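Agenda item 2: magnesium ion complex prediction
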Amino acid sequence: PAAVNIKIRGSVASRGKRVKVSGWVHRLRHQSKLIFITLRDGTGYLQCILADDLTKTYDALTLTVESTITIYGVISPVPEGSHAPDGHELHADYFKVVGKAPGGDETITNIVAKDADPQTKYDNRHLVIRGEQASAVLKVRAGVLRAFRKTYEDLGMLEVTPPCMVQTQVEGGSTLFEFNYYGEKAYLTQSSQLYLETCLPSLGDVFCIQESFRAEKSLTRRHLSEYTHIEAELGFISFDDLLSNLEETICRTIDYALADPLISELIKELNPKFKAPARPFLRMTYADAIEWLKKHDIPNEEGKPHEFGDDIAEAAERKMTDEINLPIFLTKFPVEIKAFYMKKDPEDPRVTESVDCLMPGVGEIVGGSMRMDGMEELLAGYAREGISPDPYYWFTDQRKYGTTPHGGYGLGLERFLAWMCDRYTVRDCSLYPRWTGRCTP
Ligand code: 4AD
Ligand code: MG
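Presented output:
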């Protein structure tokens, strides 16, 4: 009978029929009179069996891992207790090699091997992503992006795509990537926040999923030079509204991701202990965090006890989050250690209406705040940071033409995934990660 062309995922529906399936030889095993191939086509894995005369052909005898191949045959269930993906296997009656891979000792099996040194792995990231774990993370990434978009649709928020080439900074001049824009100075965007703020009067609440760029000189496991930034901005809200909106967004997105059978299965494989966090998230002020760090003898960056006004560095933040072992909304950071645009707390002008969301194992995954909505305070904010207001005229104008209390946040997708998929570093949550010294492949 003629064969129907299929993809591996969903092949259960084709059991009993003669099919044609194409992919890469993921694993290969020769047994006395049989050849077992685990075929991979990106959608899944399928056990295929060559028997009898098929095993004696030149192509079968010289077959190598990662070669591309088209196989014809009938899919049938395997007996209880025997291990094959989806509980079935393809009994081949014909096959064709499409592109042969070299094989031998230098095969990518070694590169993908868990114990290969990191440098080799990242040089060969284009091969590493063929591996089961790396590709699982990338599939979860796609599922999580889908889940965020569903959540924002539920919340009635519109997606926009602000520019990546800009002439303003958002999160401090020290991490700006500068480039020559037709003879003018320009930067790669650090955050689309300022542009999102300008959309409120025309589009209502908005979000974007866009690359952000940071020239982070330090090598840490959670800093990239380019990362996917999920940002949202909401109008006519209070600080409490911002916190509950953020909590709702995170929880709803996780629920959507787990409701997808494939994504939920992959998360289970990558991070067997993962559970959707309980609501409400623990809320803790910066001042209380400083007290907590003092009480637990966790020193600041200079090795001294923490004091009000100190930055909570990555190591201290992670220790605290791991010890508490719950998502935390850390709120009300001092004015001096936060960005120029953040609104002051009306009850305590030393601090801002700001929030970081911290997750066990990673620390900060979200930074957000209420924004200054008055002209005077914003001009003072520029002055405090030593920023010239000129290139910001369009941002400043929002305070002139119908201002409103508003706020928003930015979430680092790779950090969110590192938490969800239990990866040691955000580098393994990006398709082709960039960090200090690495811009290939
Ligand atoms: O805390 P950040 O700097 O806040 C902002 O950019 C705000 N303007 C966002 C907003 O309110 N619209 O960055 C937000 C998040 C961080 O919490 C972190 O998850 C991620 O972006 N992030 C990075 N992720 C990977 N590598 C880096 N170098 C990152 N820098 C920030
Ligand atoms: Mg931050």
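Discussion summary: The mean pLDDT is 95.
Owner for follow-up: CH.
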